[in-house]
User: What shape does this take?
Amino acid sequence: MLAPASISTIEGDPIGPTDPEYIEMMRFESGLADRVVSATDGPHDEPWLNHLDATQPHTQPAIEFALTHPEIATRISGRVIDLAAGICWLAARLSRVDRVAGIAAVHLSRRFLSTVGERMIQRFDGDSAKITFAVSSFTRVPFPSTDFDCAFLVAAIRHSLTPIKTLMEAHRLLRPGGCLIVVESPNAVMGLEATRARGVRLSRETGVPELCYTRREYAYMLRQAGFDQVDAYPVDTVIRGAGRRALRGALRRFGIEDLIRPPTYIFVGTR
Assistant: This one.
């Protein structure tokens, strides 16, 4: 029996065996995901932080970039929703932003939110009074339409079996003029077929979708979901070393960056 969560939790429609997210939900609900991640090496005493470092090293620097960027930062305000909250580090970080009045963190598994999610809110000094958990599919989120000012999908689209439906749900939840902030590391155009084949193999081995998209494909999906204005910001702050930064600058000047080695991008879609 689960201990009562200290953070308010909203339950959406149950995820059943016919839902595309069911297998992934059961990995978290059964504790299998915790057992797999416990084998991840790293400097932290918290296995999920080692996993975050290993699989998403660019996401935290990208969020700090967004929170200081003059065109993005002011739009992160009011009611905010993290549509694929994962371990909830982002919800914790955003809860410390004065402009953010409240944040809903959505995950497939109630058990995962009440254990790992609660731990990470404390670990990242989150303001739990601002945070609400929501247990649901990412395409049937239990909030009214136009209920939020800003939404986030961080390293989530490439793991979604229904990416455009997920983006359409984000569009539904946002008020007119609100924005969706997507953080992803697109794949290079060169060698894309081989990269996608590796992604399919990895998906079959782990049970977690690992899909591959280029920068233009991410922007295309956002527009297909109803976001007429889509802006893309390369996150150069995650590049280490003068040599790598020089190489990045050369690739960008010659217009071949996305062809050979795209950077991490922040996509901002306006409703």
